[in-house]
Amino acid sequence: MKSFIKMLRSKHLIKTIIFVVFVCSYHNSYSQQIGNGLENIITNFGDILYSGAYNGCNPTGGVPDSEHPWQHLLVLRHPNEANNYQLQIGTTFAENEKLFFRKIANNLNPKSPTWVELATRNSNMFNGNQTINGEIIWPLAQKNFSAAPREGVSPMSIRLWDNYNGGGPSSFGTLLEMYGRYGHMVSQLYFGGWDNSRIRYREAFYAQNQWNEWRYLLDSKNDIESSGNLHILGSGNHYISNGNLLIGQTSQTNSTYKLDVAGKIRTDEIVVNTSGADFVFEKNYKLRPLSEVETFIKQNKHLPDVAPAKEMQTNGVSMGDMQAKLLQKVEELTLYVIELKKENEQQKQQIEELNNKLKN
């Protein structure tokens, strides 16, 4: 019995050993140390390489980074030795430096395609379109508003700055800065806080080492002052829904005038809405006797129903009302002329009758 149990224990031990060897063999076939655990030094990263880790000093086909002459290279090679399909990842020996990758798909010939930069903590360069499904976040940084143009921002870049009592156009705000070709145009858009949310703009052109003055951008909330000319080129209607339009002045004594011009106006035609004066020809219209008109003129030095000159100089003249008054006076003159004509004809008839009596 003891010998039988001893035999079973021996078989169990053998199975255990076989199982451990199998697991170790399986594990080692998929996870192996590369050589002695250290990189091999090579001179050409574009050569036909096996999977492994390599390095080189200024190697041919190395990554486009001059931070350090020595470079690392990690290679993954297709298991078929009849072709040269590689995935390469490379970088320099510099600490926390950029990462690059490239893929080689070729026959058994050396090849060195262009490296593609991976996103890392330092500056990166990408070729092609980039799609960002999310936000672009800049680090919190205070802009030095007394600095000369192009300081703190790189050519061909956009930078977002904060202003917290940092000497900007307002106490608090956000600055968007855009810099183009080296040494050329740099622009700033400033979004103010606690100053009615005004938007300002300034720039420095080529060879300018001083900022131009801040300018307010046109918005629908704040007053705008511009030293340039206003050009409205649209073909639609342009209107001012509220308030008055002043030309040649900044204030007016009488706010009832929608258009107030301090100066001369020249135009080809003016159309004024008026009621006319045809009421003069109505049967119930009472035409003043000329004697009464004469008395009024002697006393007041102006025509009846017409404002005196002093009042016109003080308050101006309503063109529509004045045209109507003048037309009224013309129509009254017409009626006076008609009456005078009738009187003349009666007098003429009486004279003729007297002449005939004298002849007889």
Structural description of this entry:
With 360 residues, the protein is α+β, with helices and mostly antiparallel strands. It folds into four domains: 32 residues; 79 residues, no CATH class; 88 residues, no CATH class; 76 residues. Helix content is 24%, strand content 21%. The strands form three sheets. Strands 1-2-3-4-5-6 form a six-stranded mixed β-sheet, with no helix packed on it. A five-stranded antiparallel β-sheet has the order 7-8-9-10-11, with no helix packed on it. A two-stranded parallel sheet has the order 12-13. Strand 4 and strand 5 form a beta hairpin. It starts with a helix and ends with a helix.
What is the percent of helical residues? Answer: 10-25%
List how many beta strands DSSP finds.
13
- Approximately how much beta-strand content do the residues carry? 15-25%
Number of helices: 4
Could you tell me how far the N terminus lies from the C terminus, measured between alpha carbons in angstroms?
Answer: 195 Å
What oligomeric arrangement do these chains adopt? single chain
Can you summarize the main beta sheet? 6 strands, mixed
Q: Output mean pLDDT.
A: 85
The SSE order reads: HEEEEEEEEEEEEEHHH
| Broad structural category | alpha+beta
Give the domain tally. Answer: 4
Global morphology: rod-shaped
User: Uncertain regions: pLDDT < 50 for 5+ in a row?
Assistant: 1-31
Strand order of the largest sheet: 1-2-3-4-5-6
How many whole angstroms does the radius of gyration measure? 49 Å
